[in-house]
Specification:
Strand order of the largest sheet: 6-9-10-11-12-13
Oligomer: single chain
CATH topology of the largest domain: pyruvate-formate lyase- activating enzyme
Radius of gyration: 22 Å
CATH architecture of the largest domain: Alpha-Beta Horseshoe
Largest sheet: 6 strands, parallel
Distance between the termini: 54 Å
Number of strands: 18
Strand content: 15-25%
Bound molecules: iron/sulfur cluster
Length: 433
């Protein structure tokens, strides 16, 4: 069979990106020529869109992307259009009638079926072998699929299914393979990390997994994303403290601080316990940078609840924080509640909360002037090299712009002294040799 050229487009989060990378590896394995996110300026035999179905905006972006690529089919630039991912998994019954131009709909992890349908051959590569689309020195590492938490506002468990951990040995083998390919930084991800192990080992063992990854020679940075605050396994903090290659960074979504809102959100934690946990995290891992996410406008959120959230954010001074306005998702527990916070109020609260966080973030950025940090260089631009410290996750956190006083190599680490701070960037210069 002749080789076919496939363009893979991935939308949504880093977990989705890993699915696209696994698919790409399998497609290569069965003989396809594969490109990633190529613009529609040449002919492709097949375009595969890996969709996101997390919230309303993401669904809209997915649908618009499918429609844009459907147009290229009409223009003769694409022969076949396939769709996979969260949106497709969730609405596989409804979507084919809505968008008939799509030639095939697949679920989140139907990589093998796609490879077989395209080339009539079974891929021989391991399930988690994948093409790395991120810069060569860093990769995402997915340690579990699914989520059993069922927060009232979240549709993810309906899309991804039950929480399923990958065995420690399998993850460590993947890390060893990626280190051989040049990866130095591992951004560990899952819908929620903190249940890791409970389904296959009968206990939470994220700490043990961190120790195992940290012990692999060549692993320079490990960064943890998406911890859940209730039942937080504290041995994780010990593992973070004892392994010098674990970044002092934790992405832990808190969503709110009002007990009433937290209860209505089914978060299984109250403000006092959250506060105690944050104290423990900061005491056990001094200097840690905490990234969190908050939600405003959940059904029933009063002005008092919102004021409590503002006070909490003022008090905690999170190094990084994102926020969303509540958006009703079908099939979730919150769908049964009246969406009674007016849209204008949601937007106003979101703006106020983010304005507060901007002030806090800027103060934290400015406090870094004069300090020297280990920085990994991601890329070279016209005026600067662009890198990150251990406190900065790719794509979401501030970057460090390093003056081009000397030649630096992307993927290498340098000590950089910070000379200026901007809201989303630090500027610095390399110190020493
Ligand atoms: S823990 Fe995260 S993924 Fe799971 S239901 Fe809650 S918000 Fe959704």
């Amino acid at each position: 069979m002749s080789q076919i050229k496939v363009n893979v487009i991935s939308l949504g989060c880093s977990k989705n990106l890993i699915d696209a990378e696994c698919l790409m590896r399998m497609l290569k394995d069965v003989g396809c020529e594969v490109v990633f996110e190529h613009p529609a300026d040449e002919h492709f035999d097949t375009v595969i869109i890996n969709t996101c179905g997390f919230i309303g905006d993401a669904k809209e972006e997915s649908i618009n992307t499918i429609l844009e690529w459907a147009e290229t089919k009409k223009e003769g630039l694409t022969d076949r259009l396939l769709v996979m991912g969260c949106l497709s998994e969730r609405y596989r019954k409804e979507l084919p009638a809505e968008i008939p131009d799509v030639d095939g709909w697949y679920g989140k992890t139907d990589w093998k079926a796609i490879a077989q349908d395209l080339m009539h051959r079974n891929p021989a590569c391991a399930r988690y072998d994948r093409v790395i689309t991120t810069p060569r020195h860093h990769a995402y590492l997915k340690i579990a699929e699914g989520c059993n938490r069922f927060c009232a506002f979240c549709a993810i468990p309906l899309i991804t299914g039950r929480f399923t951990s990958r065995p420690i040995e399998e993850i460590v083998s993947e890390v060893e393979m990626l280190v051989k390919r040049g990866v130095k930084e591992f951004n560990v991800i899952a819908q929620e990390l903190t249940s890791y192990g409970i389904d296959i080992y009968g206990e939470r063992c994220l700490g043990k997994l961190i120790d195992a990854i940290a012990a692999v020679e060549g692993v320079e940075w490990i960064r943890l994303h998406y911890a859940y605050p209730a039942d937080f396994p504290e041995d994780v903090l010990d593992a973070m403290a004892r392994n010098s290659n674990v970044c002092k960074y934790l992405d832990i979504a808190l969503q709110h601080s009002s007990d009433t809102v937290l209860k209505n959100m089914h978060r299984h934690i109250d403000c006092k316990t959250t506060r105690e946990l944050l104290e423990k995290i900061r005491a056990k891992v001094p200097g840690i940078h905490i990234r969190t996410t908050m939600m405003v406008g959940f059904p029933g959120e009063t002005e008092e609840d919102f004021a409590e959230l503002m006070d909490f954010v003022r008090e905690q001074r999170f190094e990084r924080m994102g926020a969303f306005a509540y958006c009703e998702e079908e099939g979730t527990a919150a769908e049964k509640l009246e969406d009674n916070v007016p849209e204008g109020t949601k937007s106003r609260r979101l703006e106020e909360l983010m304005a507060l966080q901007e002030t806090i973030s800027m103060e934290i950025q400015e406090s870094k002037i004069g300090e020297t940090f280990k920085v990994i260089i991601d890329r070279e631009e016209d005026e600067f090299y662009v890198g990150r410290t251990e406190f900065d996750s790719p794509e979401v956190d501030p970057e460090v712009l390093v003056r081009k006083d000397k030649k630096l190599t992307p993927g290498d680490f340098y000590n950089v002294k910070i000379t200026e701070a901007l809201p989303f960037e630090l500027i610095g210069e390399v110190t020493g040799d």
